[in-house]
């Protein structure tokens, strides 16, 4: 799969003499906005360490304006988000079955 | 001159048609600076005069002072005031209710679409909005 699709081509089609740098301006806005959004997600993370790592990776890629890195870490982030959701759903299901006294095992070193 | 990414962008329509007054003035509302820049560029390429703002609140402020808005195109999901809430306020106002409103959303949710159309929206466009979507809707509504 490539890194850019038809939507990017449509953005480029909007570039004209009045806005000769339109595409680059939109891309800069994207990196600025997505970095901020990723930071918001990172701040909302509830101890999800793998997601946190991917957010950091995504943020770094945005800062470097590294589109390839952004796409890769974003795909990883989405995957980790899905995996985390499944695992936490299973976890809470088990908790409900086990009763109120059970909590997660604290990671070593904490 | 457009200022891409600025909170408010006023863009004159390209091309000469004899005067700004003859060119439909579209108010675009979107909290995303990226989407705001894109919709403004699409509207400009379709020869509309565009003012792009970042919130429903700002849109209502502008509608209170700018008498010649021909159409409103607004994002659905915005903080503080959604596009739906903006639509309702426009349609509840005796001064504004005749202005056609188009809703945009990145989510294709049928109940949301129905609710907006029932409230008086002219159309509901799923993002990413294309120039062909704008052309289709606007030529119908502004005919």
UniProtKB/TrEMBL annotation, chain A:
The protein's name: Histidine-containing phosphotransfer protein
GO cellular component labels: cytosol; nucleus
GO MF assignments: histidine phosphotransfer kinase activity; protein histidine kinase binding
Domain of life: Eukaryota
Function description: Functions as a two-component phosphorelay mediators between cytokinin sensor histidine kinases and response regulators (B-type ARRs). Plays an important role in propagating cytokinin signal transduction.
Localization: Cytoplasm, Cytosol; Nucleus
Species of origin: Miscanthus lutarioriparius
Keywords recorded for this protein, A-Z: Cytokinin signaling pathway, Two-component regulatory system
SUPFAM superfamilies named in the record: Histidine-containing phosphotransfer domain, HPT domain
Comment block on domains: Histidine-containing phosphotransfer domain (HPt) contains an active histidine that mediates the phosphotransfer.
GO terms, biological process: cytokinin-activated signaling pathway; phosphorelay signal transduction system
From TrEMBL, chain B:
Positions of modified residues (4-aspartylphosphate): 75
SUPFAM superfamilies, sorted: CheY-like
Entry protein name: Response regulatory domain-containing protein
Residues of the Response regulatory domain: 25-142
Swiss-Prot/TrEMBL GO biological process terms: cytokinin-activated signaling pathway; phosphorelay signal transduction system
Naturally occurring in which organism (per UniProt): Miscanthus lutarioriparius
Alphabetized UniProt keyword annotations: Cytokinin signaling pathway, Phosphoprotein, Transcription, Transcription regulation, Two-component regulatory system
Family that this chain belongs to: Belongs to the ARR family. Type-A subfamily.
Role according to the record: Functions as a response regulator involved in His-to-Asp phosphorelay signal transduction system. Phosphorylation of the Asp residue in the receiver domain activates the ability of the protein to promote the transcription of target genes. Type-A response regulators seem to act as negative regulators of the cytokinin signaling.
PROSITE patterns tied to this protein: RESPONSE_REGULATORY
PANTHER family per record: TWO-COMPONENT RESPONSE REGULATOR, TWO-COMPONENT RESPONSE REGULATOR ORR11
């Amino acid at each position: 799969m490539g890194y850019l699709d038809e939507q990017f081509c449509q953005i480029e089609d909007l570039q004209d003499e009045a806005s000769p740098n339109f595409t680059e301006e939109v891309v800069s806005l994207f990196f600025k906005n997505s970095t901020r959004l990723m930071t918001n997600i990172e701040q909302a993370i509830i101890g999800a360490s793998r997601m946190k790592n991917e957010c950091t990776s995504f943020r770094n890629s945005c800062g470097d304006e590294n589109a390839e890195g952004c796409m890769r870490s974003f795909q990883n982030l989405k995957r980790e988000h899905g995996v985390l959701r499944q695992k936490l759903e299973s976890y809470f299901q088990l908790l409900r079955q086990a009763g109120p006294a059970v909590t997660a095992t604290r990671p070593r070193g904490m | 001159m457009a200022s891409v990414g600025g909170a408010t962008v006023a863009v004159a329509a390209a091309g000469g048609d004899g005067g700004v007054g003859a060119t439909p003035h579209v108010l675009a509302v979107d909290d995303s600076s990226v989407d705001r820049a894109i919709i403004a560029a699409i509207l400009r390429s379709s020869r509309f005069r565009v003012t792009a703002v970042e919130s429903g609140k700002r849109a209502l402020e502008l509608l209170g002072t700018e008498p010649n808005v021909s159409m409103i195109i607004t994002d659905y999901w915005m903080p503080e005031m959604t596009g739906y809430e903006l639509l309702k306020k426009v349609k509840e106002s005796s001064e504004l209710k005749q202005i056609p409103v188009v809703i945009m959303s990145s989510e294709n949710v049928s109940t949301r679409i129905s609710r907006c159309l029932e409230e008086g929206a002219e159309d509901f466009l799923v993002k990413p909005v294309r120039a062909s979507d704008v052309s289709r809707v606007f030529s119908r509504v502004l005919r």
